[in-house]
Write a structure and sequence with these properties.
Blueprint lengths: L1 E3 L1 H5 L2 H5 L12 E3 L23 H13 L1 H22 L4 E11 L6 E14 L4 H67 L5 H35 L26 H7 L1 H22 L4 E12 L2 H4 L6 E9 L7 H67 L5 H35 L16
Antiparallel strand pairs: 1-2, 3-4, 4-5, 5-6
């Protein structure tokens, strides 16, 4: 059963912010109550997905990345700037007060000499149409969007750090497997050489075994390069020099059933990018309304008081104060079309942001559905490859005995060893892919995590 999800309707809050017809944007989207790729068997919702991997080293790395990663520092600076802009926007609704002290020096003539002046000037623009309030609300919502961006940056860096950490561990497992392959090929070559010296094997068997060993050594060099590259990627997320010095030491975690991701409707309240997009849509609506109201007359009040004289004491003489109060009502008549152009621009920008919100929402739903679906497929792949490894191990032991007794050929021995290595390498890759996909799921549903103080927006 499909039902209309309210957050998608809320995206058109531009229309709610203003009665301007051109701001009404329709984007009807139907979503299911639950995720279509989700099976009936799920685990509990993950309250802390980083801790859920039971990896103390990962929690330390995430905390370190959240403190030092430049992307997060930049997002925090953007938040500070947005909050300052919001305060500036709100200040437009308040009166202004300026004080001035002047000194004038004149040479020649009857007015020659020094004169002093002191004055206070106050001004206030009446928000009779709500334009200044709209600008203030737009600034506040922009700051809200920047805060969601900051949360999103922390979530993304936490997930990227976890992915980089387990990519390094996967690479380390592949390197160790390649070393084992080299050791096995070396042992097999020694056996072939001994058989050749006894006249049991041919010289071609020796050369074939040497070729297999050289290929394994080449694979080992490739695996070591991949491991070093993975280490540098992790170090970069940590804000460190990419020396490739960090080493993986925990392997890959065993995963339980996919955690319950909640409902698609809850996704709109959890994901920082959707929160930020919705806030920007609303902010754009208020900005468009303010631009429309700029075409209306404005009322401003001003007052000034001051005194002056030939001495500094005269400037501070309260008995001689002169006070002026004025009211000004002004209406724009001709600005070369600038005000209407600004109105049209802000309305178009609001429609653009509304459409982008829908696009972001669809992307979020797709990422979640893909991650849920992939988890089940990868679990099946890991199970099948585990069987393949077990069978390959049994086959290699059998062929080694057969070769020692002269029944099997060198080619059968090399092929059996290659099958085992390939099966093991594929199993490591599949396990790594499943861990990476599980992290992608937590990222897609904006899961909470406590490492480094990272939390989702709705958990604050």
């Amino acid at each position: 059963m499909l039902r209309r999800v309210s957050p998608f309707i809320a995206v058109i809050c531009v229309a709610a912010c203003t009665p301007t017809p051109s701001l009404e944007v329709t984007a009807p989207i139907d979503t299911p109550i639950g995720y279509t790729a989700l099976s009936a068997e799920t685990g509990p919702s993950a309250s802390d997905w980083v801790a859920g991997f039971s990896d103390a080293r990962l929690q330390l790395l995430v905390a370190e990345a959240l403190e030092a990663n430049p992307t997060i520092l930049a997002a925090r600076a953007s938040l500070d700037a947005a909050e300052a802009s919001a305060r500036s926007s709100n200040a437009g609704r308040l009166p202004t007060l300026d004080a001035g002290l002047g000194v004038t020096e004149r040479d020649g003539g009857a007015s020659a000499g020094t004169s002093y002046s002191l004055g206070l000037d106050a001004a206030w623009q009446a928000d009779i149409w709500g334009r200044l309030s709209d600008n203030a609300r737009s600034g506040a919502l922009s700051a809200e969007a920047a805060r969601a961006d900051w949360y999103g940056a922390r979530l993304t860096i936490a997930a990227s750090t976890a992915r980089a950490w387990y990519a390094l561990n996967e690479a380390a497992l592949q390197t160790e497997l390649a070393r084992q392959d080299v050791a096995t090929r070396t042992r097999q070559l020694e056996i072939v050489v001994r058989r050749f010296n006894r006249g049991v094997s041919r010289s071609s068997d020796v050369r074939t075994a040497r070729s297999a060993l050289a290929s394994s050594q080449a694979s080992l060099a490739t695996r070591e390069q991949v491991e070093a590259s993975a280490a540098r990627s992790l170090e970069t997320f940590l804000g460190n020099y990419p020396a490739g010095a960090i080493a993986g030491d925990v392997g890959l975690p065993e995963l339980n059933a996919v955690p319950n991701p909640g409902s698609p409707e809850a996704l709109f309240e959890r994901r920082p990018d959707l929160t930020a997009a919705a806030a920007r849509v609303a902010a754009a609506g208020f900005s468009a309304e303010a631009a429309r109201k700029a075409l209306y007359p404005s009322l401003s009040l001003s007052a000034s008081t001051g005194d002056g004289g030939t001495t500094l004491e005269d400037a501070f003489d309260l008995d001689g104060l002169v006070t002026t109060v004025a009211a000004n009502l002004a209406a724009p008549i001709f600005r070369g079309g600038a005000l209407r152009a600004e109105r049209d621009r802000t309305e178009a920008n609001a429609r653009r942001l509304a459409a982008q919100y829908v696009e972001t929402a669809l992307t979020a739903l797709r990422e979640t559905e893909n991650a849920i679906d992939a988890d089940a497929r990868l679990a099946e792949r890991v199970s099948a490859l585990t069987t393949a490894v077990n069978e390959a191990e049994e086959a290699l032991e059998l062929v080694e005995r057969q070769y020692a007794s002269g029944v099997a050929t060198i080619f059968e021995l090399i092929d059996a060893q290659s099958r085992l290595i390939n099966a093991n390498a594929q199993l490591i890759t599949a396990r790594g892919d499943r861990v990476d996909n599980r992290i992608a799921l937590h990222l897609a549903i904006a899961g909470d995590f406590a490492a480094g103080g990272g939390i989702a927006p709705n958990a604050e």
